[in-house]
Design a protein that fits this description.
Layout lengths: L3 H9 L3 H13 L11 H14 L7 H12 L2
Length: 74
């Protein structure tokens, strides 16, 4: 069986959508008590599914930084 560092190295070599799919599967494999009580997990999975269905709904890291800076006046 592979150790965690080998698995991590292989996972980080995947494409963005493949990593998102893997992350979703790993999160779903966790017991319920490890998930958010505020529906954060459900919202994250909804957004992930939306992005996988239509990557055009995503924004670039630069756009994210710009929006954060605008919102928080930084």
């Amino acid at each position: 069986m592979a150790d965690i560092s080998t698995v991590e190295e292989l996972a980080l070599g995947l494409s963005t959508s493949e990593r998102a799919t893997l992350a979703s599967k790993l999160l779903r494999s966790l017991p319920e008590f490890m998930r958010d009580d505020d529906d954060g997990y459900a919202e994250a999975m909804r957004r992930r599914d939306e992005f996988l269905a239509n990557p055009d709904v995503g924004i670039t890291p630069e756009e994210l930084r710009r929006r954060i800076a605008e919102r928080f006046d930084i």
